[in-house]
Amino acid sequence: MADATIDTAGLPQGKARSLWADARRRFLRNRAAMASAVVLVLVLLFAAFGQYLNQWSNEEIDWEMLGMIPEIGGPSLSNGHYFGVDETGRDLFQRTVQGTRISLAVGIVGALIAVLVGTAYGAVAGYVGGRTDNVMMRFVDLMMSIPYMFVLILLLVIFSRSIVMLFVGIGLISWLDMARIARGQTLSIKNADYVEAARAIGVSGGTIIRRHIVPNLLGVIIVYATLLVPQMIIFESFISFLGLGVQEPSTSWGALINQGAANMRNGTPWMLGFPLFFFVVTLFALFFLGDGLRDALDPKDR
Amino acid sequence: MTSYILRRLLVAVPTLLALIVLSFLLMEFAPGSPFATERGIPEAVMANLEREYGLDRPLWERMATYVWGVVTQFDFGPSFTFPDRSVNDIIAQGFPVTLTYGFWSFVVAVVVGVTLGAVAAIKHNSALDYAAVGVTVGAQVLPNFVMAPILVLIFTLWLGWLPGGGWRGGQVEYVVLPVIALSTSYMASIARITRSSMLDVLNAGFVRTARAKGLPAHRVILRHALKPALLPVVSYLGPAFVGMITGSVVIDVFFSTGGIGQFFVNAALARDYSVILGITILFGALTIFFNLLVDVAYAWIDPKIRY
């Protein structure tokens, strides 16, 4: 039966491509997403090493500027204040570096909490199903119908305004959407043949969720997590804009934009411009990155 | 339909009660007394103050009184920092302002958003479509607290066309910038959702049938395509409403409108618990009520939903 072997001569040679390699190829070919990735790397580098780029610190006051900030406090390469100084004579470049760090940290931590809690919650609810599912998702609905921003501000007022409280508050609500998405995906995965096969040979529910459900959720989760980061950043900036988030001398993009807005009538437009630029550019990049990842990882959309 | 509404009410009412009780308990955990000053208050005075505000009674009794007062008479009690004003006075003063520009923001977001999205979908891949997509993508990164300073910078400081704050009883020029600042990002989201669902619907079989039987284009779109295309928009209205209520705080503070958000932030900074609590409950009730409306509207529009 020699002629039963498949003739491979006419087929393209090379290794079989995995799902992930395929996704990577698609992502690398997406120009907007690649440009966004480059921008994000630059912003990360700025946050990590910006501290060493000039001789000022974020708390030090440049006394020579005081009283004449609208006239001589603007951006300048010669005196090292690349972004100018703020209304109290502090170096805006270093303030922006610090604000970038805190805003990015909030975004990433918020998204991480959402990924961990939301995925576990949604996968369990979807896999177990029935009444458990009903109760668990009703609870999510209930949480979502509460105006969380007000409750969070209530929390911040009661337990003192601190960055830790802010993380807790953001963590409390960030996972809700993720739980819904994970549950929806789990519902479609759990009827797949390989899950049934696993159940048939007696694999326990917990192991099935860990070994079979969660890995197959990963694509959706990665996409949604990238889109959550900008949401968390907006969320934190909102609270800091109101003066209820991070407290001086710490700062974030929201707090910097607020100060810039409060001082824009005093002839210091750079105080608004630079933080706004970083905020807008980073958010843009994150949204495009998320879109690119969705195109690369979600096979349904093509 | 009636039973569906009743069932939704059965969920909404306990949610609201839970919110009231939870917020009240949170306030109980707050350290310190609302009357404490840096110089200290004589014990007898403190005792009198606490009796006056009913703080000497046990927790459950105060909570029952509070919840009962809120539910039966919409009475949120006195403000702790302004002895001569009740929380109701503050709400009565600030809420009409917030409601006015909030209402217009909502209308603008929905009308402009739906129109933009629908037109973009109908003229798919035209210059107009690309412009609409560009606007919606750009507006995504412009939340209200970013839009507000940019608008004031351009229209007040550079062009001098519109006032950058104040209210003056709601004269048109004082309402324009708050409405634009609050509605932009939601308008963009609504436009994006409308566009993508409209594209799906326009490719559906029943639209092709309607076209094939010779209906004019505007009838196909208005009578057949628009209604199913709006379903995702309707379900987005709930989150949009929450976002706008939340965003109104920024608008009130930034434009000094004298709206309710200004009182809220001042109360948050001054630890005036009863005002924070009252406003949180008011906005919570509004949110829950609006979500109920959205659910009912959705069930009414979508023939596939069984209730």
UniProtKB/TrEMBL annotation, chain A:
Q: Which GO terms describe its cellular component?
A: plasma membrane
Q: Give GO terms for biological process.
A: peptide transport; protein transport; transmembrane transport
Domain ABC transmembrane type-1, residue spans: 100-289
- What sections of the protein cross the membrane? 32-53, 65-83, 104-128, 148-176, 217-244, 270-290
Q: Which family does it belong to?
A: Belongs to the binding-protein-dependent transport system permease family. OppBC subfamily.
Question: Residues of the signal sequence?
Answer: none
Domain of life (superkingdom): Bacteria
Hydrolase is among the record's keywords: no
* Protein name as catalogued: Oligopeptide transport system permease protein OppC
From TrEMBL, chain B:
The subcellular location is: Cell membrane
Q: How does it sit in the membrane?
A: Multi-pass membrane protein
Q: State one Pfam family annotation.
A: BPD_transp_1
Q: Which PROSITE patterns match?
A: ABC_TM1
Membrane-crossing segments per the record: 101-122, 142-162, 174-193, 229-255, 275-301
Q: Which GO terms describe its cellular component?
A: plasma membrane
Domain ABC transmembrane type-1, first and last residues per copy = 95-294
GO terms under biological process: transmembrane transport
Entry superkingdom = Bacteria
Q: Which UniProt keywords apply?
A: Cell membrane, Membrane, Transmembrane, Transmembrane helix, Transport
Q: Family per UniProt?
A: Belongs to the binding-protein-dependent transport system permease family.
Q: What is the designated name of this protein?
A: Oligopeptide transport system permease protein
Q: In which organism is this protein found?
A: Palleronia salina
